[in-house]
Amino acid sequence: MKYWILAAAVLGLAACGGQPADTAGTEAADAAAKPRPGAASAPAAKAAPEAAPAAATDAPLQVADIDAYVRGMGSEVEMLKAEYRKIEQARAANDSDAEIQALFAMTAEGIDEAGVQASRLSPARYGFVKDRIDEIQSKADLLEGFRKMEGNSSALRAQIGDPYAGLPADVASALKARNAETAALRAEAIGLRLKAAGG
Length: 199
Description:
Elements: H1 2-15, H2 23-33, H3 63-92, H4 96-105, H5 109-119, H6 123-147, H7 154-160, H8 169-177, H9 179-198
């Protein structure tokens, strides 16, 4: 029962790429925007310049986003490897408490946060980029699998369509060129979580 529950949690996390909201930053911004009691309004001429608007979270992928994905996923994979080593050690020592602790660490927000920091994107943007590239990679992997099937798989391939459709030409070319790299990172992250959950 213990492994079944933890496996379900791990599989659920591996299947979704959502990132935690940056609530701390929002609260700080709200607090800064509220006037302090008794404070005089600053003259318009002395008002602090407004920060440049951040890029939209769901703006189309750019070539630089691929580098951010690789940095972020590379960091996530390293953390997952470290926690999986702890699981192996705990299982070898028959230490169920240490094993559970490491299993939960593989589903903790710290993994996502490490990816965000390494990517140098906002949490929301990193989540969008990660989901988008994972979606493209998943379709590309399916198409490759269908191509290796015996018989005519053209109907199945047609249902999936072109994974890179709708992307700017430079982004599509860059993703295709780095397909092996992004596919390996995604597969390793999923594989580590599945091995951990398998007990």
